[in-house]
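pinned: reference chain
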Amino acid sequence: MNQIIKNKLAKNWFKTLQEVFCKEIEELEGKSNLFKITNWERGNKSNEGGGQFRIHNNGKIFEKVGVNFSEVYGKFSNKFRNRMPGGDKNPKFWASGISVVMHMKNPHVPAMHFNTRYIYTSHGWFGGGIDLTPCIKDEKLKKWFHSELKKSCNKHNKNYYKKYKKWCDKYFYLPHRKEARGIGGIFFDYKKKNWEKDFSFVREIGISFKNIFREVILKKHKIKWTKQQKEIQYEKRGRYAEFNLLYDKGTKFGLQTDGNVEAILMSLPPLAKWK
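pinned: its C-alpha cells
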C-alpha cells in the first residue's frame, strides 16, 4: 500500500469519527445542530491543509466540548524539524488527527480526553490515547474504565494495556505539582511496526472512547451536586489547564506548525480557579 493511500485512509477515518462523536454528543444532549463549526486553513501563501473544529458550550450535560479534526502538511521550521522523528532527514511533513476534550457541567462526571493521529515525515507513525480526569474520587468508575481499556487493548495485543497505561501515567503527570492530572488511561506514540495492524488498533480505540463516554455520562450526569463540589471541579480544571499549556505535545506541535490557535486551545476549560 503506497503512502498516499495510507494518508487518505487515516484522514478519512478521523473525519468520520468526528461526525460519529458529534452525533453521539447531540443525542446525549437531546438536541441537533448544537455545534459551532469553524473551518480553518494553514498557511497564508499556499495550500497547506487545515481542519475543522466544533465547539458546544453551556449544554445540560457538557459545559464545554470540542471535537477537532485536522489535516496539515508543509515543512517544519529549522528549529522544530530536529525535534520530530524523521525531521532531520526530511523537513516535509503530513499530519492528520482528531482530538476531543469534554468539560462537564456536573462535577460527578469526569473531564474526558481522546485523540488519535497519524504523522508522516521520512516515515509514518500513529499516536493517541484516552484519559479521564475526575474531580470527585470514584474507585468503582476507575476500575470499570481501566477494565474497558484493557478489553480493547487485549483484542490486539495482550501487552498493550500494561505498556500504554504506564506511558499514560508518566505522560499525564505535573512535575511542578508532583501529582497526576487524573486517573490515567492509555497513551501511545511512534506506533509504526505494522501499518494495517496499527490502524486497526487506532480504530478500535476510537470506538471504545465513544462507548466509554456515553456510559460514563449516562451513569453520572443526573447525580445531584453541591456548590462545594463545583468549586473543587474549578480547581481541578486549573490543573488541567496547567498541563495543557506547559507539557502537552499536541499543543506544542500545533503551535510550532502554525495550526489554528483557537482549535489548539480548545482543550482549555471554560472556567477554572486557583487558590
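why pinned: The chain has one domain: 3-267. The chain has eight helices and nine strands.
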